[in-house]
Amino acid sequence: MLKILGRRTSANVQKLLWQLVEMGIPFEREDYGGEYGGNKSEDFLRLNPNGVVPTLIDGDAVIWESNTILRYVANRYGPTPLYPADAAARADCERWMDWQLGTLNLTMTPLYIALIRTPAEKRDMAALERLEDKAEELFALLDRALADRDYLGGHTLTLGDIANGMFAYRWYELPVRRGGPKPNLKRWYDRLTGRPGFQQHIMIGLS
């Protein structure tokens, strides 16, 4: 059985848990990181030298980096529509995974930390305002991208949606300015909230 090392409140762990539900793959999970610690121990660092979560153990294989783990699971336990076999469709999926990691993450992670994990008296309000503005800009981009499609990859859920969907939940739940209406984004988000894996592992509150 797959073993996941990482706390369920980690956004990167949540992506993986959601995927496993979508694919019907059983797993075990152990709490590491955050308030649980353990991710800087010698044993953990032998598995993942970065000391971050999640780390996936699959028999003799040890995989780290969250989006790499998503791809590994899809390849190892697929085929699955979450990771299309067609080259163009797979590239469409992967570019949104890369966008989440290299673009959206750079705004949403510090925004989340500032609002949820930083005491109000210690917040940099000017920096927070810039992050709010940037997040609104990025979700407006997603709204435009979803104008002619149900999901980021077309009409079927893919890993691109899983990678970005967990941040969409946080953005809708955070006390931030969200700008004008984003109807395409909202329709997409409402589709995600109807999926059992999203309900079970993403919609768990902010902490």
TrEMBL record:
Database matches in PROSITE patterns: GST_CTER, GST_NTER
Domain of life: Bacteria
Span of domain GST N-terminal: 1-81
UniProt entry tagged with the keyword Transferase: yes
Naturally occurring in which organism (per UniProt): Sphingobium chlorophenolicum L-1
Domain GST C-terminal: 86-207
Keywords: Transferase
Statement: the UniProt record of this protein carries the keyword Transferase: yes
Pfam families the record matches: GST_C (PF00043), GST_N (PF02798)
InterPro entries assigned: Glutathione-S-Trfase_C-like, Glutathione-S-Trfase_C_sf, Glutathione_S-Trfase, Glutathione_S-Trfase_N, GST_C, Thioredoxin-like_sf
SUPFAM superfamilies attached to this UniProt entry: GST C-terminal domain-like, Thioredoxin-like
Name of the protein this chain belongs to: Glutathione S-transferase domain protein
Protein family (similarity comment): Belongs to the GST superfamily.
GO molecular function, one term: transferase activity
